[in-house]
Fold this sequence. Notes:
Blueprint: H1 12-32, E1 39-41, E2 47-49, H2 50-66, E3 71-74, E4 78-80, E5 86-94, H3 96-100, E6 107-114, E7 117-125, E8 130-135, E9 141-142, E10 145-146, E11 159-162, H4 171-182, E12 185-188, H5 193-199, E13 205-208, H6 219-225, E14 229-231, E15 246-249, H7 252-262
Parallel strand pairs: 3-5, 11-12, 11-13
Antiparallel strand pairs: 1-2, 3-4, 5-6, 6-7, 7-8, 8-9, 9-10, 13-15, 14-15
Amino acid sequence: MPTPPMTEACPERFVTLAERLADASGEIVRRHFRTGFSVDDKPDLSPVTIADREAEAAMRLFIRDAFPEHGIVGEEYGAERADAEYVWILDPIDGTKSFVTGRPLFGTLIGLMRRNVPVLGIIDHPALGERWIGATGQPTRFNGRNTKVRPCPTLDRAALFASSPHMFEGAAADAFERVRQRSKQVLYGSDCYHYALVASGFADLVIEAKMGLHDYLAVVPVIEGAGGKITDWRGAPLDLHSGDRVLAAGDARIHAQALEILAGA
């Protein structure tokens, strides 16, 4: 069973470091964006670039220097000390396909876990100059100002986001389609930006599948600190051992409705 969420505030020194990581990563990513870099394919055929690798390497150096006892789990360079009390979760470019095709909606995700519970997260969009920060005990901030979700009592009023309709297969596709049909509008292709839009009250629901933990753990404190709710498709909290399916909502009422529909109710 997951450890219950912490009640004490996330230490400010960790928030400060997370912002330094986002600053360093963003500088690297912007330097490469819309230039003639090469694109390599990973074993799963997903793309990776020099920007992904350089940004994660830079963030790892900052973490090792500031808190050598902390663990790190990064998308590009794997895990080290993953059993530490504090573990950083890094996705230097969430939305590499957007990055390599010149679309500015890609983001950098930086999360911190304490005893397997997300306590700090940053959604940073370096091409747009937009940053969301969520930390236990603090309200979510967007570019320095507090932000929050909007009320949405029923799905027929909801703006639903998903990265792609092609991420759902078999029973998962059927489940997503049931929610899609009951939602007011559906939008695709925004990478991690859609979580930020929920946190700022411009969207209402995110449903994802085939996700890695780098794709969602950092967004948990951002969504929760803005007053929203984020779980897996069974309603369980997200942690290092969660699966690949995520459900986030600004309003707990449509989160509950979506859970029921995803389950076939």
